[in-house]
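hey
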């Protein structure tokens, strides 16, 4: 069998490996830490840094195609691999998504055709930049340009003094000040585009975040109108085409209280908000990534069941605020009809660490929601409704 390569050893690589293997491929993972979720599932592992030239050469030599599951893999490494084998997504696409400034500029450039703009923003690279902040960008959120995820590297700011303090605390890295927008709700659109330029767009997903981390994804979204779904899907299709992207990509949008659609960011890979596709769609986002990178026809994105995905963080291993941990009662969770449990094989259940996810599928969204309530009761997760 042919081997597909993955840069990165996290849960996205693990679920990718499962999908690839079920389609008859072997999977090789390159990741610096030998004990990782994707490594446990892969057929072979290269334990090395993401920029290790001989490791990259070894990966390129054994794989018919290479992808990435890690957003911050050095773009240069993907460019190097591309001299040897087919790489999707391409280095240039990944580097745009790695830099919030390039990403925002790209979204602005796309706007005439995509019809959506990013939040008003300004680069903050020096104290002079802080003096020049226009009044209407405050209150806002100061975000590091690179490396932020799950709300890390972000500070909410009200005044110029807040910006100065937050910027100083970021140790001189370039930041972006983004205007705080009045969100009604958040959605994401998962897309896949093949090397032949054909693209598919999954149903729109509605996302709820808690403490900066994705909490639930509900599809179909209870707040999403057909008109909003079409606008976001058209925008996503336009953006991936303008990027010349190959592979699975997820675009996050804000829907403002006045109905305006704002593009937030994109992830050049399968995405947490797309995990529901494993259990609720004909082709999962991971199977779709396999198809795109292996230059096979893209799969049917049809959703066959309403679904709610709940992220399972390390917190559910803890009772109260102490340090004692115990295994959650998975048997009780699995007794719920329509409960699909995915655990990532991580040994240490640290708080706020993504340990797994649970997708509740049901004939109706109301029933899926009832199961979510039951699952949250078993796992001691508060649901503020
Ligand atoms: P991810 O884990 O999704 O990659 P991230 O750390 O890259 O997250 P963002 O997605 O930019 O960060 O922001 C995290 C969350 O913060 C958003 O999902 C949204 O809830 C809130 N947020 C971000 N920017 C804004 C904004 N301009 N106005 C209002 N809320 C915002
Ligand atoms: Mg992000
Ligand atoms: Mg985000």
């Amino acid at each position: 069998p042919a081997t597909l390569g993955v840069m990165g050893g996290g849960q996205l690589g693990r679920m990718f490996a499962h999908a690839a293997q079920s389609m008859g491929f072997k999977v090789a993972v390159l990741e610096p830490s030998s004990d990782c979720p994707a490594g446990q599932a892969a057929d072979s592992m290269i334990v090395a840094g993401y920029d290790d030239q001989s490791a990259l050469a070894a990966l390129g030599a054994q794989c018919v195609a290479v992808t990435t599951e890690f957003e911050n893999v050095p773009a240069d490494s993907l460019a190097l691999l591309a001299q040897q084998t087919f790489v999707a997504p391409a280095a240039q696409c990944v580097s745009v998504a790695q830099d919030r400034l390039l990403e925002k500029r790209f979204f602005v450039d796309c706007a005439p055709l995509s019809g959506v703009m990013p939040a008003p923003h300004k680069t903050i690279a020096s104290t002079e930049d802080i003096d020049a902040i226009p009044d209407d960008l405050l209150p806002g959120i100061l975000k590091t340009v690179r490396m932020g995820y799950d709300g890390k590297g972000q500070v909410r700011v009200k005044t110029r003094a807040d910006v100065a303090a937050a910027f100083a605390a970021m140790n001189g890295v370039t930041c972006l000040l983004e205007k705080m927008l009045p969100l009604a709700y958040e959605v994401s659109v998962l897309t896949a585009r093949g090397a032949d330029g054909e693209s598919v767009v999954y149903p729109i997903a509605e996302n709820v975040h808690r403490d900066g981390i994705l909490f639930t994804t509900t599809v179909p979204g209870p707040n999403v109108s057909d008109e909003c779904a079409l606008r976001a899907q058209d925008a996503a299709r336009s953006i991936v085409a303008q990027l010349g992207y190959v592979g699975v990509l997820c675009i996050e949008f804000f829907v403002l209280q006045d109905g305006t659609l704002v593009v937030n960011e994109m992830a050049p890979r399968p995405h947490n908000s797309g995990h529901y596709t494993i259990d609720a769609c004909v082709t999962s986002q991971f199977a779709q990534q396999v198809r795109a990178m292996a230059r096979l026809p893209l799969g049917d994105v049809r959703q066959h069941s309403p679904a709610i995905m709940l992220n399972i963080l390390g917190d559910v291993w803890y009772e109260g605020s102490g340090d004692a941990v115990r295994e959650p009662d998975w048997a009780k969770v699995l007794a719920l009809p329509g409960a699909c449990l995915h655990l990532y094989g991580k040994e240490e259940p640290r708080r706020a660490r993504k340990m797994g996810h649970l997708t509740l599928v049901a004939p109706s969204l109301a029933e899926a929601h009832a199961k979510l309530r039951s699952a949250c009761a078993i796992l001691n997760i508060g649901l503020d409704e």
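The domain at 3-87 is CATH 3.40.50.20 (Rossmann fold). The radius of gyration is 21 Å.
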